[in-house]
Amino acid sequence: MRTLRPNPAFVAALVVLCLPGLAHAYIGPGAGFAFAGSLAVLVGALALAVGTILLWPFTYLFRMIRVGNPYKNALTRRVVVIGLDGMDPGITLRFMREGRLPNLQKLAEGGVFRPLDTSNPSMSPVAWSSFATGVDPSRHGIYDFLTRDPCTYAPMLSSTDIKNAEKVLNIGKYVIPLEKPKIKLLQKSVAFWKTLGDKHIPSIIQRVPITFPPVPFRGLLLSGMCVPDLRGSQGTFSFFSTRNNDGQAAFTGGEQTVLRRKGDTIRSRIVGPDNGMVKGGGRMTLPFTLTVRGDTVNVAIDGGEAFDLPLRSYSDWVHLKFHAGPGVDVSGIAKFYLMSVAPEVELYMTPIHIDPEAPAMPISHPEVYSVYLAKRFGPFATLGLAEDTWALNERVIDEAAFFDQAMAFCDEREKMLFDAIEHTREGLVTTVFDTTDRVQHMFYRYLDPTHPANRDKESTEHKDAIQRVYTHVDGIVGKVLAQVGPDATVIVMSDHGFTNFRRGVNLNTWLRDEGYLALKEGHTTSGDWFEHIDWARTKAFSLGLTGMFINRKGREASGIVAEGDEYRALVKELCHKLEALVDPESGTRAVRAARAAFEVFDGPYRLDAPDILVGYEGGYRNSWSCATGSVTEVVFDDNTKSWSGDHCVDPAIVPGVFFCNRPLLHDDPHIMDIPYSILALFGQAPPKHMQGRMLFASGAAEAPHKGMLDARRLSQSGAAPGARVEVAGA
Fold first, then answer.
1. Whether 357 contacts 403, CB under 8 Å
2. 13 or 376, which is more confident?
3. Contact, 22 vs 36, CB < 8 A?
4. Over pLDDT 70: what percentage of the chain?
5. pLDDT surpasses 70 at 62
6. pLDDT tens digits along 577-591
7. Entry pTM
8. Which residues of 99-120 are buried (b: 16+ CB within 10 A; e: fewer)?
9. For residue 37, with 0-12 CB atoms within 10 Å meaning exposed, 13-18 middle and 19 or more buried, which class applies?
10. What is the rounded distance in angstroms from the CA atom of residue 726 to the CA atom of residue 200?
């Protein structure tokens, strides 16, 4: 970091000019944050809105003269894509048969319903990146949420790189940045909506994963998965309780503050982001007062809002302003939920979301778009992983509180979708709903009475939660079909499906037992992030959820496996052994297929892939400890967390869904076919680097496929294996 000495003659002017551009960055596993003042955003919003209105007739005339009619070769002038993250074809078929999804049934009968082949690995950041770009991971570079820094073996967020400003001005205790922070999207290739925009076909893109920070294009975009919270993490909740918990005040994914009660009054504080404006400033905090009044508490934020909060209910979004320095406030929003008032006071607060009305980081393109949505509909969730799964995993909140939270965020997204449809008579609208994914992750145990996660938990009260979500999104689909009419092309899709997650597999422990991973002397286990690994004697290791890395010479800092024959022989040897791995508890194989990345990928970013892609059988997944680079006592363990369903398995087991009101040319659509086909529907030639194909007929001479696959063919596709609980009639 370069430090400049201040000139007293213009210090005051610099402070005034630089404060709106204040920036700070925090980089950790799956985290990153940089904040900036919101005054420029608000001024820009007003200027952009006025300028757009005044210049619209001239820009339209200019486009018609220079570009002509961009729809002259189009098969459709309007496409609406409803993304239902994680919607499973097996569960969908079951609910359709039961008459619970009438709108999807109608869409299938008039058009098509097929399983949708997903990416490998079958994870949301990977699959949605392939949807956005039309290419596989070796061409867009996203293989997981996490990867490792090959220079240090430390975990890194795979999608985004956030760095603090390098040029700063020191004024006493204050550190004033002289440039913007560097926030970079690591996803490679080009999103297909940018290609449409280059052809003057507008798009509104809402909450598609791996779109943070937003890349400028001719259109509107609200970022999705991997937007951090105000503290720079992927979601850190707060739990305030008078219960001491035997001194335990920390949770995975959150923190507890122990409250000290004096009569009916409690004073505490909310912990916000680091204050990068002050040397050694630490975390900014915001004091508040709790006053207990029977089954209600009054929450009064110092210098901010005050509100009454009844038992077992959520507050509205509450604005939280943290004071960073003279004239600089950092704004976030959060919801509060009162779990208990007696015998202990227990108050949960969601992660602090970036305030969409005064965004501390770029969460939309243009920046005014999030401001517009907040002005029209009020505050809304901006965190990439908004539904607080860790708060439920840690049993800080219960299923009812989680479900209410998830459905509230779904309702926010629905308003945005219909606003986009209202303002897009021609062009593309794409909105992704996360609710289907999050509720299946957290409620899948209700489909399996014998699931280990049911131990010490009730297992019947919320057995209809997944069905309720599917029914709810079916209603959204029905309203969309009614609003857009028959001339628009409507696609309902998911990035992957779902299966059971009963047992975790720690690949690092297995590698230790097999002699491929070594620990430092005196250690038989290791903590998170490879704490006690002896890299000089380690040939392979695992991090994240997608597979296994080889400790390669020339790539990893302490690599010991030579490229060429030694590397390839080791990969083949490990693949063979993994496919023979048997769970001693059940006697069944845990891995359906282990694939060498060099046989799967041939794109320019293939070296960033895990060297072995581990395709688990249904019921298995990388264990929680393996995902964070730990080495445990045993290879297999029961998954007892509420997160009881998953999709990080062999991709053939978890295809997504594909519905459309147009018939198909092919019975086996792939997620990479969708962007290719949308470009072709608009009459635009898909770029040559895209790997998809046209799904839809362009003339009567072609013989399209319509309707639904029958149950037998659906099962053969991999969408509904007989061993899967939800199809077996649970």
1. no
2. 376
3. yes
4. 86
5. no
6. 999 999 999 999 999
7. 0.90
8. ebbebbbbbbeebbbbbbbbbb
9. buried
10. 45
pLDDT tens digits, residue range 342-360? 999 999 999 999 999 999 9
> Can you tell me the distance from the alpha carbon of 308 to that of 285, in angstroms, rounded to the nearest whole number?
22
N-term to C-term CA, the chain:
59
- Which are the contacts of 632, defined by CB distance < 8 A and separation ≥ 6? 506, 508, 509, 525, 623, 625
Residue 730 has a pLDDT of: 30
β-sheet bridge partners, residue 157: 146
Domain ranges of the chain: 85-142+187-224+405-498+654-730, 502-652
* 252-293 pLDDT per residue, tens: 889 999 999 999 999 999 999 998 888 877 899 999 999 999
Distance CA 427, CA 444 (A): 37
Q: What is the pLDDT of residues 662-689, one digit of tens each?
A: 999 999 999 999 999 999 999 999 999 9
Q: Among 388, 384, 364, which residue's Cα sits nearest to residue 374? A: 364
Complete edge-to-edge strand list for the sheet that includes strand 591-596:
540-541, 547-550, 612-616, 591-596
Contact by Cβ (8 Å): 276, 173: no
Residues with Cβ within 8 Å of 587's Cβ and at least 6 positions away in sequence, in order, are none
> DSSP letters of 297-339?
EEEEETTS-EEEEETT-B---EEEEEEEETTEEEEEEE-EEEE
d(CA 460, CA 458): 6
Per-residue pLDDT tens over the stretch 436-449:
999 999 999 999 99
Q: Which of 630, 642, 635 is nearest to 155 (CA)?
A: 630
Residue 399 — very low, low, confident or very high, per pLDDT cuts 50/70/90? very high
Q: Rounded to the nearest 10 degrees, how much is the dihedral formed by the CA atoms of 289, 294, 296, 302?
A: -10
> What single letter denotes the amino acid at residue 86?
G
Q: Which CATH class, in words, describes the domain spanning 85-142+187-224+405-498+654-730?
A: alpha beta
- Give the model confidence (pLDDT) of 299-309 as tens digits: 999 999 999 99
Q: CA 298 to CA 285: how far, in whole Å?
A: 19
Answer whether the bond into residue 213 is a cis peptide, omega within 30°. Answer: yes
Listed in sequence order, the residues at least 6 apart from 226 whose beta carbon sits closer than 8 Å to its beta carbon are 125, 145, 157, 159, 160, 209, 210, 212, 234, 384
Distance CA 254, CA 393 (A): 11
